[in-house]
Amino acid sequence: MTDYSTDIYLKKKSLTQAREILFNTFARSASTGVETMAVTEAVGRILAEGVSALVSSPANHVAAMDGIAVKAENTFGAAETAPKTLRISTEAFFLNTGNLLPSETNAVIMIEDVHVIDDHTVEIMAPAFPWQYVRKVGEDIVATELLFPANHLITPYCVGALLSAGIMTVSVTRRPCVLIIPTGDELVACKSLFAPSDLPPGKILETNAHMLGALVAACGAEFIRHDIVEDDPEKIKQAVQKAVDSGMYQGIFLLGGSSAGARDYSKTVISELGDLLIHGVTIMPGKPFIAGSIKDIPVFGIPGYPVSAVVCFEEMIRPFLYRLQGLPAPQKETVTAVMAKKVASKLGVEEFLRVKLGAVGDRIVATPLPRGAGSVTSLADADAFVRIPADTEGMPEATPVAAERLNRRTDLDNTLVVVGSHDNTLDVIADMFGHERRGMRMASSHVGSMGGLMALKKGFCHVAGTHLFDPETRTYNITYIKKHLPGMRLKLVRLVSRRQGLIVPRGNPKNISGLEDLAKPDIRFINRQPGSGTRILLDYRLDELRINGPAIAGYDNEEYTHMAVAVAVASGAADAGLGIYAAARALGLDFVPVVTEQYELAIPEQFMGLPVVQALMTIITRPEFATRVEELGGYSTEETGRLIDIS
């Protein structure tokens, strides 16, 4: 019988408590050592000790301008009405910027103010004052003065100052080095695969070590990836013990095995070899985080879910690595945004919500992304984190929030925000934005056709993707827009006609021929969410066939995109799902046609002049767009770009 610990997460720490424990425990014990290196190679390193100048800069009095060097006293009295003449090589000396001043001079007159009379004489019409246009000895650096103190970060500008002061080498703090040990029987190293199709059933690629290694390097630290260690507590213990005994590392990461399952051994290994400091933190994702000390070396148990791993790193390990280098962690840029929709959250847990950002009108809108701890794509797509405090149960729609930017380079004013129904052609548009519209990008969120129209109404997006069928008029979208967005002046842009039907496994093993077969008890269905155009179409057709939708097996199982429906069918979780032909074709599935429908983009008239919207219109009317869309299968672009005014 599996034995689970009885104290699972009973002593969870808040994020603040976890940081205090970590920083206080290793405040003095962690040392990275010192090394000497050439100044020219030291950018980004931290000075281990203060550096003083060996020589002054400039080392002599030098000219700050092209002109003539003079003794200022010899020029007194010169004026336009009473010019003075000076003898070349005895009273006036031609020189260029940076040249050494002759010992008997103390000023420079710019060449523009010098009138050359002949080879022996020059004339000036204004006096010079002592040290005019002269860089005096030590003007920038004086020998023996402190240039930079200990723990100073060496920048490219520091290199120039150090070399000018005669410093060729510096003592710097060694970069912290961590060992990353991935654990798990289910893991397969990326390098061992010839192709993804070689992945055995039940196995997954080990990616966290690579991702965390890149994050470590971004903090100015170094890392070494250990080979994958199987789920054997003795083998994990041996790997950790060997790392500790080597004295090479200022931190050890145990990836996976930090939770509370029967094969999660990080807690046991750390407890047996040293002291367990933290087991569980009140954050989401990231709750199973572990920290311990083995011979004064910090050992971290990091959750296996990618987003959990990243949150744990960013919130606890990242600031710790900077502290090891004597530096504060760089502050994250924050922007004030409003939530595009209501978000519920667990009381007592601080949640890190991934969002996309875009400037719509005079405000920045934060659109939530999928929240699963294993959704690494939501992390890659995210522009920012929004923290939901532990003492709240979520955030209402339109709540102002502080969004912590993950990518400072993103220009929110050049982001096209698209909300609404999912379609594979949006991916084509997003890719063409990236290739052809440098500095612009498209951020899309899939909430269904009605969700898109409501987002337009509330000012949360520029464009809504929609395909809402009205059975009375036998038209798409116009009736719904006039009903739900009365008085709003819009352009309805025809994007594509597309084939919608039942996505079924290859070979159609259950011989599904139409929607009427969904009523059979052995057919498992995967549905779309309420408010989506596909769901509205389904319910209308089921009503025509006099089929009770909720009685269909799987009617309450919902997905938000056509590709998610296709994946559910491909994985065997469902026997059929209503979706577009392109999604079925992409995964090699069969397709039973039901209807050809219009997929359109609703755009408020006030946004039509925006550069990002103009870029969208240019892209969808290009021949390349039509070619790429039709290659997906199940689409027609005959009317792509057609505009319909709605007011």
General description of the model:
The protein has 647 residues and is an alpha/beta fold. It contains 15 helices and 40 strands. Strands 29, 30, 31, 34, 35, 36, 37, 38, 39 and 40 form a 10-stranded mixed β-sheet that branches. A 6-stranded mixed β-sheet has the order 16-13-17-21-20-18, sandwiched between helices. Helix 11 (533-544) links the parallel strand 35 and strand 36 (558-559). Helix 1 (15-25) runs parallel beside helix 6 and helix 4 (233-246) packs across helix 5 (266-273). Mean pLDDT is 89; it is low at 1-8.
Write the layout of secondary structure elements.
Blueprint: H1 15-25, E1 34-38, E2 51-52, E3 62-63, E4 67-70, E5 84-87, E6 93-95, E7 107-110, E8 114-116, E9 121-124, E10 134-135, E11 146-148, H2 156-164, E12 169-173, E13 177-182, E14 187-189, E15 204-206, H3 208-218, E16 222-225, H4 233-246, E17 251-255, H5 266-273, E18 275-279, E19 283-284, E20 290-294, E21 297-302, H6 306-324, E22 334-339, E23 343-344, E24 350-360, E25 363-368, H7 376-381, E26 384-388, E27 394-395, E28 400-405, E29 415-420, H8 425-436, E30 441-446, H9 449-457, E31 463-466, E32 469-470, E33 475-476, H10 478-484, E34 490-504, E35 525-528, H11 533-544, E36 558-559, H12 562-570, E37 576-580, H13 581-586, E38 590-604, H14 611-620, H15 623-632, E39 635-636, E40 643-646
Parallel strand pairs: 13-16, 13-17, 14-15, 17-21, 19-24, 22-25, 29-30, 29-31, 35-36, 35-37
Antiparallel strand pairs: 1-12, 2-11, 3-10, 4-6, 4-7, 5-9, 8-9, 18-20, 20-21, 22-28, 23-27, 24-25, 24-26, 26-28, 31-38, 32-33, 34-37, 34-38, 34-39, 34-40
